[in-house]
Amino acid sequence: MFKSILRYLLFIGAFAIICDCSTRTNHTETDLIRYLMLGYEKRARPTNNLSETVEVMYDLKLIEIQNVDERDQKLSVFAWQAMIWKDINLEWNPDNFSGIQRIVLPAKNVWLPDLVQENNALEFYNEQFTKYFQAEVFYTGEVLYSPGGRFTTSCSLNMRKFPFDRQTCEIIVTVWTRTCSEVELFANHSKVNLENYNENSEWNLEDTDVVKTRRSGFDEYDYCSLKVTLKIKRKPLYFVIIVVLPCILLSFISIISFLIPSEGGERISMCMTVMLSFTVFLLVLNDILPRNSDEAPIIALYIIIIMVVMSISLVCTVLIVKLHYKNSRVPPKLKYFVFKIMGRFVGMKYGNKTVFEVNKDPSSSRSSDWRKIAAIFDRFCIIIFTLSITIITLVMFAILPFTN
Description:
By secondary structure, the protein is an alpha+beta fold. It folds into 2 domains: about 30-235, Neurotransmitter-gated ion-channel ligand-binding domain (Acetylcholine Binding Protein, Chain: A, Distorted Sandwich); about 240-400, no CATH class. It has helices at about 1-25, 30-35, 130, 235-255, 265-290, 300-325, 330-345, 355-360, 365-400; strands spanning about 55-70, 75-85, 100-105, 115, 135-140, 140-145, 150-155, 165-175, 185, 205-215, 220-235, 350, 355. The longest helix has about 35 residues, at about 365-400. The chain is rod-shaped and about 115 Å long.
């Protein structure tokens, strides 16, 4: 009887020990969190004394360039911010807690450096960082905090060389209320982390840079900042096909109006149609380019210059048509200049004789002389406007885009 009771008591004791060990094992992390949070004050800097500085290592991990808004002068990127610092109030001995070396705590429960994006174009403080992200805490007291999301920064875009433009945008991260003597901000790398970067279909990321700076506050103190620079270049193929090539083709098509016979009556209509087409291109560019009066884009200047050339060609077309139907006597000096000089310059010959020599025949009618003068002016305008448009096009799209 006594042995049975003793066995029963031993069984109960062993079962209680097993249950207690199981309970302790399952709640070791809970015990650790309670141990760390007991008396923890997240509003105080994690230092032993006021003279110590909390050093925060910062690393920006760029995922993608989401949008470049030329109209509103904004750059939007998706990135992660990796921040590491040491919190002496979050240290523990892993041997006392079943070997646990790392735990995860809500970011709102631990001390965080009050970093803000100084040139944010949407919101100054991003509340989702502390609401949805957590911090990794290691037994040495190191805290790793990696919030991520969309960063929209104000960026002054220079559209002068559009669509062959390069842009430089900055993301300025600063400690807002803690001075450099309290919280020191360091860049973990001199470049942006691009390990997980996804290429953008419109922009190439040419170079990045991370530089430590200081921001002067309203008082005599300095506040630490990091200036992240992104240098991007536009991929021009889409705009070359959609905008640039049609503009160049239209500008040369306008020259064909001088080859249309004056009797057809379609010359002036064609010139007007080409000018209206360039007006449509200006409206398309108006939806793309910012309303900035500092520097006009090259392509807009090109369209304006070509429209001026087209206006001059329209005036020339009207004058040539008028000459074609003129039936009065040709002044001798005009006849000599056009037939003798311009005729040879533009190569208007009949056999081995120039037009001037052919027109020495007294039997030639006055109207025939004027038609031949109009033909010489047609050839002259074709040569002059072809050279003008070619030079303007080469300067605008082959020289200026590649000069500083």
